[in-house]
Amino acid sequence: MPVKPCLLWILLLSSVRLFAQADTTTSDGLFQAARHAAFENKDYALAKRYAIKALALSPKYADIRVFLGRLYTWDKQPDSARACFDYVLNEQPDYEDAAIAYADLEFWSDRNEAALEKVTAGLRYHPASADLLLRKARILAALRRYEEAGNVVDTLLKRNQKNTEALALGNRIKDERSQNRIGISYDYVYFDKQFEDAWHLASIDYGRRTGIGTVIGRVNYANRFRENGVQFEVDAYPRISNTFYLYVNAGYSNNVGVFPRWRMGLSVYANLPKSFEAELGIRHLYFTTTTNIYTAYIGKYYSSFLFGARAYFVPSKTTKNSASYNLLGRYYFGGADDYIGLNIGTGISPDERYLTPQLNAAYSLKTYKVNVDFRHAFKLNIVTLGGSLINQEYMPDTRGNQIQAGIGYIRRF
What we know:
Layout: H1 5-22, H2 27-39, H3 44-57, H4 62-74, H5 78-91, H6 96-108, H7 112-125, H8 130-142, H9 146-159, H10 164-173, E1 180-191, E2 199-209, E3 213-224, E4 227-238, E5 244-253, E6 262-272, E7 276-286, E8 290-302, E9 305-314, E10 322-332, E11 339-346, E12 366-378, E13 381-395, E14 398-412
Antiparallel strand pairs: 1-2, 1-14, 2-3, 3-4, 4-5, 5-6, 6-7, 7-8, 8-9, 9-10, 10-11, 11-12, 12-13, 13-14
Helix pairs in contact: 2-3, 3-4, 4-5, 4-6, 5-6, 6-7, 6-8, 7-8, 8-9, 8-10, 9-10
InterPro entries: Beta-barrel_YaiO (IPR030887), TPR-like_helical_dom_sf (IPR011990), TPR_rpt (IPR019734)
Keywords: Signal
Protein name: YaiO family outer membrane beta-barrel protein
């Protein structure tokens, strides 16, 4: 019975594959086998044996020696890795991949000054290298030299607006690039049915970069329910590591109803691989009773965009549990402070300051909303604009619309 053509092709390809896997008599074949062992099977010990055997055949094969150095790095053998990278760079000081690998080793080993030295040496030969510049920005951020890190990020984004990793890093450090910042904002909320009078919220804040992270003090003024109120708040963003940082918030007001008497928040943020970011947190509001709201967020930077999803969950012992869900998208047309954003969702969240008192309502509000944001930097000056359309069931079977418009200004110095 004749062999079918497709079966013949399968047999031929299998034979070629087996032959390629078995070809460990040349340095190129051994290099291929080492990469297969490392990336496909995660067998670093076997990969190292193949790489060492390849170097015995071709001692000057720089690609293999750099790869062996990376294997030692992944296998937590930093001294052996350094020996590989030093050998290559002594022979070829302009070898870009060796400089990148060496900088990665030192950065992952928490030797940031040594990492900066290696990446700076590489940039002398390759000043336009996006890979080296991105690593330099990360290292400078880890050293808390945020202004320098931000300048490197700006350079990267000017050359390639779609550099996702640079955009993500720029967002993480944007509020720490300057020692000080001041901000003012104003929000106006119009109701077509629920309330006769519009709501007004104005804020002024001052932030300063400290040894633990940025700390911001804020004074809020609001006119709601035909009453005036003032709230005092403090935000802090302590950094735990290159991966994790915190958001801590505390606020107090003596004008209960206009504001909650107490407001507190705590979140853990994570900067994840592949340009992902995540948050888990809790918000605490106390008017005359306590409301605790739990939140979770996941975001992904892709090209010049950020896509994210956030949920708020409010457990209740007396009424039905409630939740708020939000989907967001941003398009960055410059740096981390230049974007247009769209947010659609359901429910009211405690982070929407202009609507927070509605979380104190006796009736579980069914809310649908769409929000548009705009933010743009002019050197050290940042302008923000925002608008929302909110449709809310504020009483059983009774719905009304709210229109919110906001403007803000931030000055860094």
